[in-house]
Every structure is written in C-alpha cells, then in structure tokens.
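>> received
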Amino acid sequence: MTKKKTIYLAGPLFTHAELEFNRKLRDMLHEKGFAVFLPQEDAEDAKKEREHQNQEYIFQLCVEGVDSSDLVVAVLDGVDVDSGTAWEIGYAYAKGKPVIGLRTDFRELSDGIVNLMIEVSAASLVRNEEALLKTLNNFR
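>> returned
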C-alpha cells in the first residue's frame, strides 16, 4: 500500500466564507485520497487561538506543516494574494515542494492571472476545483 501524499492547504482564513471554502477543499482532497494539513485547524490558526497562544507557536506549526507535506495547494483568490499564503508559497518553493495555485476569482492582472512571483513559482495554476483535482492526478 502506498503512503497518502500530504497536501498543505494554504489560503486566507479570516472570514466565514474563507473558512468554509477551505473546509470544502479539504474534504474534496480527502475524498481523492490525500492527507491534508489545514492551518485553521491543524495549526489552530484562528482568531480566538491567536488571542490565547503565542504567535510563534502557530508559525512553527505551519512551517512544520509545509515541511512535512509533499505539495502545497494555495488559494489565490482576492484582489491580491493573501500575504500569509504568499509566504507559504515562497517557503514551499524554496524547499522544492510543488505548488498548485487555485484561483476561482475571475479578476486578472494585465500581465497574468496573479502577481508574477506567485505565478512563476507555481508548478500549475488552475481556475476551479475540477481542474485542481485533475491536476493533482499528476502528483500522486
């Protein structure tokens, strides 16, 4: 039996809609046979936890989450990529981990889908959940 690949799911986690979308993606990835590190849950990165815990602790859990993952799926929606997500993408890239960017937002920059540093560092950019699942077949 082969070991499940682990995905670090990077993305904004500051609104109810973002939290729900992240959970939806996590569940879809689980259904496709992947293990998923979801910072809002696995690193307890939530507003109430930030008030009670040292931010260094949450940071370290997220770093360890990227380190122990096989690849990163990053939600790139919004006018600009969430700053924490951008850091996670850069860190994963520096560690040689493939990054798949998911941008369901229809807005585009004049020269590309997202900031060129994000776009070029991604192994693949997809526009919807169906394309994400199809692309992930290449990373099994």
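>> The mean pLDDT is 92.
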